[in-house]
Amino acid sequence: MRRIVRLPVSKATSAALARLTAAVKGAAEPAQKAASLWNRKPKAVFDDVRATLETMAAGRGRCMYCEDSQGTDIEHFYPKARYPGRAFSWKNYLYACAHCNSNLKRDRFPLVHRKPALLDPTADDPARHVAFIPSTGEFLAIGPKGRPSIDVFGLNDVTTPRKLPQARRETFLKLQLLLLEYDRCSNAGDSSGAAFAKQTILDEPFTAVLGWLLGIASGPAGDVLLRPGVPAIIARHGVSTWI
Questions:
Q1: Which stretches of the chain score pLDDT less than 70?
Q2: Three-class secondary structure of residue 15 per DSSP
Q3: CA terminus-to-terminus distance, the chain
Q4: Contact partners, residue 238, CB within 8 Å, separation at least 6
């Protein structure tokens, strides 16, 4: 999971969401009203919502929780059944895969002192709550929202087919090999090959792993934990500006 910048939706979409929110809050039974309106939500409005979420998501529209699968669902961070007043709030929407949304999170929404215990990657910096362990690919909880998020989103799920720690560890290796290829192509004047390697890096799942790799490369452990030459390549080509 990585920090995601929330983009604005169009003025027309924002106005439509405000009208839907007002209808829910003015209803005698807000939860029923929210469910009814959600089942017949305006297509044009939510086409814009989905397109904006896809643009915000990493790589090829990856799930904002696991970063493994492609996003498919408009996810309510605050579950709409429990918080109907937020059912049509743009700031409450994330892009999630069906597994994270329907199989894992569902209506699970733990609170601590009446505030969300889970990470919202558009409002929180996940790096302050979870740390990546390169040797295992696991996430380690380092902040108050770390453990609940790891548990609810299954971020350390080792079962087939997800095997997320192994997949992140594989990505950690692949990114280094791709950076070596990018450098080789750049030095050989192969701009097409370099551009392909760069785009492959950006399209890889687990964009958070690239962020952790860049952090490691800039620190004292870079020459120990990374393949020879990778820290220098990252510095020379300004890779930190790619994401």
A1: none
A2: helix
A3: 14
A4: none
Say if CB 53 and CB 71 are below 8 A apart: yes
Give the model's pLDDT for residue 178. Answer: 98
* 55, two tokens: 């643009």
Contact 144, 112 (CB under 8 A): yes
pLDDT digit string (tens) for 155-208? 999 999 999 999 999 999 999 999 999 999 999 999 999 999 999 999 999 999
Domain boundaries, the chain: 11-153, 166-241
d(CA 225, CA 192): 29
Which residues are within 8 A (CB) of 161 and not within 5 positions of it... i.e. 6 or more apart?
none
Torsion angles phi and psi, residue 130, rounded to 5: -135, 145
| 163-to-132, 159, 160, 167 alpha-carbon distances in Å | 15, 5, 6, 6
Predicted local distance difference test score (pLDDT) of residue 60 = 84
CA 188 → CA 109, 181, 199, distances in Å?
Answer: 52, 11, 18
Token pair belonging to 127: 């790096």
Decide: 16 and 80 in contact? Cβ < 8 Å: no
CA angle 63, 168, 172 (to 5 degrees): 125
Burial of 202 (0-12, 13-18, 19+ CB in 10 A): middle
CB atoms within 10 A of CB 164: 22
pLDDT at residue number 37: 98
> Are 234 and 225 in contact, with CB atoms under 8 Å apart?
no
* Contact call for residues 110 and 144 (beta carbons, < 8 A): no
Give the other-Cβ count within 10 Å of 162's Cβ.
Answer: 17
